[in-house]
């Protein structure tokens, strides 16, 4: 189960070049996450400069949190485990505790490694008295495994969580994620950059007005822009295919009429 969620650095298919309009965030990730991994000796020297073992990306859906997490792993030459939280929250699964331990031990074996948890608030939300006993135990176990990473200065495993509801996260979890980054809805200029990136190698019209397109897509996330471009591309191909089929049908009709005439001539 875990292996199916695992990617080694060579197989990660995205890097910084696949992210548009977030240069400032990339720079911060470089300094906060990547530099301490690459210059571990310098950072691990003092307790005050320990690299972060928890990073939180928060912001609206479709704005590139998963993309950023993967690209960070790629750029830092780290393995990437995408942990499906439903495996840990399914109370009937029964094996969740073993699984959590297995994920951490796999990450330690593969280090440097990022363990990515999308919608992290869904299983590490503020604890309540109504928590199911199994859920409470799982959270406690998860945090103690995480603390194991935090207290080991030589360990280069980072838990990277993504959420669009940071306010729902347990305070204890927030403390374990000292590096927190906002991934916002793209502005006009950012949408323009994203559109340029998506359409980079596509057969677009030479007079395409990216500025106007960006201005008319206010409220679109990067993922919405991707879907918009995909639909436009599909419409174009569909139009071409429809024209080609109409031409072929006309051709067939002409051919059939010709052979009908030949048949009539032969009978005569
Ligand atoms: P969710 O919260 O729904 O999981 P997310 O914030 O993790 O969403 P991603 O899954 O990373 O968003 O982004 C979805 C897709 O949107 C990406 O695969 C990419 O095609 C496109 N995208 C989003 N933001 C950007 C960006 N800044 N630059 C380029 N592409 C982007």
From TrEMBL:
Membrane topology: Single-pass membrane protein
GO cellular component, one term: mitochondrial outer membrane
GO biological process: extraction of mislocalized protein from mitochondrial outer membrane
Domain (AAA+ ATPase): residue spans on this chain: 51-189
GO molecular function: ATP binding; ATP hydrolysis activity
Compartment(s) of residence: Mitochondrion outer membrane
Keywords tagged on the record: ATP-binding, Membrane, Mitochondrion, Mitochondrion outer membrane, Nucleotide-binding
UniProt family annotation: Belongs to the AAA ATPase family.
The name this protein goes by in its record: AAA+ ATPase domain-containing protein
Source species: Manduca sexta
Full-protein interval shown: 82 to 349 of 382
